[in-house]
Amino acid sequence: MSIVAPEEPPATTAVAGAVRRPPRAPAVRRFAKSAGPYAYIAPFFTLFAAFGLFPLVYTAFVSLYRVELQTPGQMEWRGFGNYAALFTDEFFWLSLRNTFTIGVLSTVPQLVMALGLAHLLNYKLRGRTFFRTAMLLPYATSVAAATLVFAQLFGRDFGLINYVLRLVGFGPVDWQTGTVASQIAVSTIVIWRWTGYNALIYLAGMQSIPTELYEAAEMDGASRWRQFLHVTLPGLRPTIVFTAVVSTIGATQLFGEPLLFEGSVSGGISHQYQTLGLYMYEQGWGFFHLGRAAAIAWVMFLLIVVLVGANALVARRRLRKEAGR
Amino acid sequence: MTTLVEPPVKEAPVEKPPRRRPSRGAGKTMRAGWLTYAIMVVAVLVSAFPFYWTIVAASRSNADLAQVPPSLLPGPNLMANFEAVMEEADIGLALLNSLIVSGSITVGTVLCCTLAGFAFAKLRFRGRGALLALTVGTMMIPPQLGVIPLFMVIAKLEWVNQLQSVILPGLVSAFGVFFMRQFLVQTLPDELIEAARVDGASSARIFWSIVVPIARPGMAVLGLLTFMAAWNDFFWPIVALSSQNPTVQVALRQLGGGYVQDQSVIMAGTLLGTLPVLLVFGLLGRQIVGGIMQGAVKG
User: Where are its TM segments located (chain B) (predicted)?
Assistant: First the structure.
């Protein structure tokens, strides 16, 4: 511990110029060696390896075996049998399609509305802390709580939403049995919970756009709308890509909302809003096929990789197009 | 707590005065019109209404909820419904369990992430870049995809239905490590560690007396976000626990699973399960807003 002697007296390190010294902080480096920096990362990486990395990798392995919930210790080799069974199950394809449609129905309006709200929040606003906090309120609720409340609001006979719809002259909508209606209802819960959160993310991005850009645009006579289009949107591109990626991942594994909307693992009587996440849970904990569930998890993982990759690709291509202009 | 990170929000007003025409221009200098306020108020109402409705429904009887037109004001049955839900779903035990689980996860995560974040921010060692890349790279992979092996492990350890099966996996937060690293890169000067080192402080001493005090605002924000996420976590708890030893979310899943038909009782349970996190949000909402916006700029 006491081997390290500084080349300079400590007082000089306080001199302003010392910060720019090229061999930065040699003492820190030597301290690091003696103290064993690995001791600092050991707690995290032990847990990370055991409960983060290992389960992810091992899922692929399990997906090649027959494993039942009651006897998780017994594994019987099945090769790609689980995947074959999956691809011949009509409910797998249905839940894949539902995941996609609910994903679009929830993500697109959510991000568009968040962008609009962020734009408004960026104005000089009285009580803006209040507005920001209030808009984040839904984010503080759990999936379970939000879904139970919305399930009530969307009730067919006594739900408040149908009551209001009837007041303005629309017939009562069957939010549970209709495919489109139930998917809209489930998406509404997602939109309600995440719009404010995304608005704040966009707002943070907007505030890092230099004001000079707006001033220059204004001097060129650009209207507010054009400023939004040509200054705000390009400046927000990385943020938009980020939120699109996060929302895509969230939509791919959507689970709590469809499970608790009516409380059944099948996602409606005719599986009309069963998502992949719910289908995985049904296979694993409804029908006790852990191996099959692992195969679904692996399919979801590949799906996420493909979707995130596509996102990045689109973002890069647009960037290149922009640069070429 | 008063030294929490000021959200970037705060900086906006400081740089405003020199602008000439506050009524025009875009972004920070644009004043909001009445239409903006109107839309904001609508957005706030939409955000808040489900909470209000929970209170209304939880304080009425099931028969009231089946009325047309529906009653929009709170009724007198709140306490009765609370009692009913305590009996039917053991919400009391669920609240206690959730408190234990979320509290342990918060303390453990903040500690692990501060240690690792400090190492990644300020120490040099072999494999640092690769390990950090691994951490950040897996940040986006949803843990939900690893539940099957995880379940097999806790089944083997006979941890099913025990709180540690939820606590231990909950301690893993790649985001937290990255967050603390970014925070310490920006706030902890190398010279400070050097100076302490020269004065002969041990590494443990340096961590507790220098790193932790400087990291505290970041730790507070990470703690808030972790607590809320742990309290609201859904998939893994319903797999690992059951109604015999539930957390709040497990109890809510049971309530919504069709065993309880009384809607007002279900809403009473929802209200009880949401109150603690709403309380945290009410007291520290500003800091949570700041933390999320900060994480966004850095991430």
Answer: 34-55, 91-118, 130-154, 166-185, 206-231, 265-284
Query: In chain A, what residues touch B201 (CB-CB under 8 Å)?
Result: none
Q: Does A204 touch chain B (CB under 8 A)?
A: yes
pTM of the model: 0.86
The A residues from 105 to 164 touching B (CB cutoff 8 Å) are: 117, 120-126, 128-129, 131-138, 140-153, 157-158, 160, 163
Taken in order of first residue, the domains within chain A and their CATH numbers are: 10-81 (no CATH), 84-324 (1.10.3720.10)
| Chain B residue at shortest CA distance from A299 | B145
Give the ipTM of the model, two decimals please.
0.86
Q: What would the two tokens of residue A60 be?
A: 């692929």
Note the pLDDT of residue A33: 52
Which one, of B253, B230, B251, B3, lies nearest residue A140 by Cα? B230
Distance CA A141, CA B274 (A): 6
pLDDT in tens, B104-130: 999 999 999 999 999 999 888 888 999
State the smallest CA–CA distance between residue A320 and chain B in angstroms. Answer: 23
Tokens describing residue A86? 């999956």
Task: Note down the domain range covering B229.
Answer: 90-259
Whether A12 and chain B come into contact, CB under 8 Å, resolves to no
**CATH number for B140:** 1.10.3720.10
- B287 part of a folded domain: no
Query: Measured between alpha carbons, how far is B201 from B198 in angstroms, rounded to an integer?
Result: 7
Nearest CA distance, A200 vs chain B (angstrom): 6
Q: Which of B187, B256, B150, B3 is nearest to A151 (CA)?
A: B256
pLDDT at residue A14, as a whole number: 40
Count how many domains chain B has: 1
Instruction: For residue B31, list its beta bridge partners.
Output: A124
Q: What's the confidence (pLDDT) of residue B25? A: 37
Instruction: Note whether A287 contacts B: Cβ–Cβ < 8 A.
Output: no
What per-residue confidence (pLDDT) applies to B1?
38
Q: Report chain A residues whose CB lies below 8 A from the CB of B104.
A: none
Question: Which residues between 80 and 109 in chain B have a beta carbon less than 8 angstroms from any beta carbon of chain A?
Answer: none
C-alpha span between A59 and A302 (Å, rounded): 12
pLDDT by 10-residue block (mean), chain A, 325 residues: 40 41 53 68 93 90 92 88 95 97 96 94 88 93 95 90 90 90 97 96 92 88 86 91 91 94 91 96 94 95 91 80 65
Residues of chain B falling short of pLDDT 50: 1-28, 298-299
Instruction: Give kind and range of the element (H or E) at residue A172.
Output: none
Q: Do A256 and B234 touch (CB under 8 A)?
A: yes
